[in-house]
UniProtKB/TrEMBL annotation:
Keywords assigned by UniProt, alphabetized: ATP-binding, Cell cycle, Cell division, Coiled coil, Cytoplasm, Cytoskeleton, Microtubule, Mitosis, Motor protein, Nucleotide-binding
Domain Kinesin motor: 87-418
Record's subcellular location: Cytoplasm, Cytoskeleton
Amino acids binding ATP: 177-184
Main location: cytoplasm
The protein's name in its UniProt record: Kinesin-like protein
Whole sequence portion shown: 130 to 555 of 716
Biased composition (Polar residues): 1-19
Residues in coiled coil: none
GO biological process, one term: microtubule depolymerization
Length: 426
C-alpha cells in the first residue's frame, strides 16, 4: 500500500510536467478559473448596481464610481498623522453632499482615497452615446474627506503656523473655493443652526491656541493680543469692526503697506474673540438678502496680532482669509456692468494670489503683490524668509458643481505642484 501511495502523487506530477497533457489540463483549468472569476465579478457588479438608486438619471455613472471606489483600499487621514513643517501647505477639503443636492438628483463625484490624494470622476458620454467616467487624480499636502471635522482640518493647516507667530512671523491661511463649498464653515464655524457655533471655526481655534501659548512660562506676560477684521470688495477696503468704514491702503517711503485707520480690538480671552467675530460677521452681511450672496463677492480678512507689552509695533500677525467665491472670477456671461467688473477684480486677485504664493515657493526675488488690493494688503506676509502660507481649497462633491470643483483642484494644484502617486488597487 505504501508503494502505491508513494507512486500516485508521482504520476500526477508526471501528468503536469508531460508537455502535451499539461497543456490541455492547464487550458481547461484556465477556462474554468476565468469562468469562475467572471461569475464572481458579474455577481458583484449586479449587487453593486442594485445598490444604486435607479431613479437618478445619472445612476449608471453612480454605479461606475461605486465600482471604482470598491477597488481602492481607502486609508483616511487621522490625528495620528505627522504634522508637516512646510513653508507652503496646500490642503483640499471635501464637504458632505447636502440633502438639497441629493434632492435634485446630484451624485457624489469626488473620492478622497487617502491622506493626500483626490480623485474627481468626470461623467462623460462617447460619440456612440456610451457612458464612461474620466477619473482625474490630484495630490496635495493633505486631503480631507467629508467626515473630517474642523478640528482635524485646523490641526494640519493653521496650527503649525501659530507656532511661527511666536517667532515674529506673519503667516497666512486662505480658504479658497466656490460659493457653498464650505469656506465660512471652515473659518467661522457652523452657522447653519439658530445657535451659531463659532467655537469650532479656524478663527476661534487659532485664538484658543494663541492664548494657550501665552500661558506658557516662556511667553507669559510678554504680549498683548489684538484683532482686526476687514473686507476687500473690488479695490476698496471696509472695516468690519467699524460699520464698514472705508479704509485707505497706503504705501510709505519704505514700501511698507498700511491699511490706515483700521480698528484694532484688544482681546484677552477666546470669548472676546468670538464675540468680535459675531459682530464683524453680522456687520458684513447686514443689509443684504443672503449671507452667501454678499460674501461671494468680497474677501474677508481676520487678523490676530501680537505686540510686545507696552509697545505699538506689531511683533507677529496671523491673517485668516475667507476668499470671495472662486466661481465669481469666471462670471463673464452677464451683461451687467457691475457684475462684470466685480468678476474681473476677483479673478485678478485670485490669480495674483496664486502667483505670489508660487513666487514664494521658488524663493523668487520679485513677488508680484502689487497686482491686487488683496495681495498688497498682505504684503508683510509675502516678504521675508520665514513667511508661511496655507491654502485650504474647499470642494463641493455634487455632480452639478463638477466644473467648478475641477477648477478649484487645478488652482490648488498650480499653487504647489506635487507629483501624483499611483493609487493602489485592491
Ligand atoms: P461658502 O462660505 O464657501 O460659501 P459655507 O461655509 O457657507 O460655504 O457652506 C455652505 C453650506 O454647507 C452651509 O450650510 C454649511 O453649514 C454647509 N457645510 C459646509 N461645509 C460643511 C462640512 N464640512 N460639514 C457639514 N456642513 C458643511
Ligand atoms: Mg461664505
Amino acid at each position: 500500500i505504501s508503494t502505491i501511495n508513494e507512486v500516485s502523487p508521482q504520476r500526477q506530477q508526471n501528468a503536469s510536467t508531460d508537455p502535451i497533457k499539461s497543456k490541455v489540463v492547464k487550458e481547461i483549468e484556465r477556462i474554468a478559473a476565468n469562468r469562475e472569476q467572471r461569475r464572481v465579478k458579474h455577481e458583484k457588479h449586479r449587487r453593486k448596481l442594485s445598490e444604486v438608486d435607479h431613479s437618478i438619471p445619472a445612476w449608471e455613472f453612480q454605479a461606475m464610481i461605486n465600482e471604482y471606489r470598491q477597488q481602492l483600499g481607502m486609508k483616511y487621514i487621522t490625528m495620528n498623522e505627522q504634522q508637516k513643517d512646510l513653508r507652503i501647505t496646500v490642503c483640499v477639503r471635501k464637504r458632505p453632499i447636502t440633502k438639497k443636492e441629493l434632492n435634485k438628483k446630484d451624485i457624489d463625484v469626488l473620492t478622497i482615497p487617502n491622506k493626500d490624494h483626490v480623485v474627481i470622476h468626470l461623467p462623460k458620454v462617447k460619440l456612440d452615446l456610451a457612458k464612461y467616467i474620466d477619473n482625474q487624480t490630484f495630490r496635495f499636502d493633505y486631503s480631507m474627506h467629508e467626515l473630517c471635522d474642523n478640528e482635524l482640518v485646523y490641526h494640519f493647516t493653521a496650527q503649525p503656523l501659530v507656532r511661527s507667530l511666536f517667532q515674529g512671523c506673519n503667516p497666512l491661511v486662505f480658504a479658497y473655493g466656490q460659493t457653498g463649498s464650505g469656506k465660512t464653515y471652515t473659518m467661522g464655524g457652523d452657522l447653519s443652526q439658530r445657535d451659531v457655533d463659532f467655537s469650532k471655526g479656524i478663527y476661534a481655534l487659532t485664538a484658543n491656541d494663541i492664548f494657550h501659548h501665552l500661558n506658557n512660562s516662556q511667553h507669559r506676560g510678554q504680549y498683548d493680543v489684538y484683532c482686526t477684521f476687514f473686507e476687500i470688495y473690488c479695490t476698496k477696503v471696509f472695516d468690519l469692526f467699524n460699520d464698514k468704514k472705508r479704509l485707505r491702503v497706503l504705501e510709505d517711503h519704505k514700501n511698507l503697506v498700511q491699511v490706515v485707520g483700521k480698528k484694532e480690538e484688544r482681546v484677552e480671552t477666546v470669548h472676546d474673540v468670538m464675540s468680535l467675530i459675531r459682530r464683524g460677521m453680522s456687520v458684513r452681511t447686514s443689509g443684504t438678502t443672503s449671507a452667501n450672496e454678499h460674501s461671494s463677492r468680497s474677501h474677508a480678512v481676520f487678523q490676530i496680532t501680537l505686540k510686545k507689552k507696552n509697545t505699538t509695533k506689531e511683533y507677529g500677525k496671523i491673517s485668516l482669509i475667507d476668499l470671495a467665491g472662486s466661481e465669481r472670477g469666471r462670471d463673464t456671461q452677464t451683461n451687467d456692468k457691475v457684475t462684470l467688473m466685480e468678476g474681473a477684480q476677483i479673478n485678478k486677485s485670485l490669480l495674483t494670489l496664486k502667483e505670489c504664493i508660487r513666487a514664494l515657493g521658488r524663493n523668487a526675488e520679485h513677488i508680484p503683490f502689487r497686482g491686487s488690493t488683496l495681495t498688497k494688503v498682505l504684503r508683510d506676509s509675502f516678504i521675508g524668509e520665514k513667511c508661511k502660507v496655507c491654502m485650504i481649497a474647499m470642494v463641493s462633491p455634487g455632480s452639478s458643481d463638477v466644473d467648478h470643483t475641477l477648477n478649484t483642484l487645478r488652482y490648488a494644484d498650480r499653487v504647489k505642484e506635487l507629483n501624483v502617486d499611483e493609487l493602489k488597487q485592491r
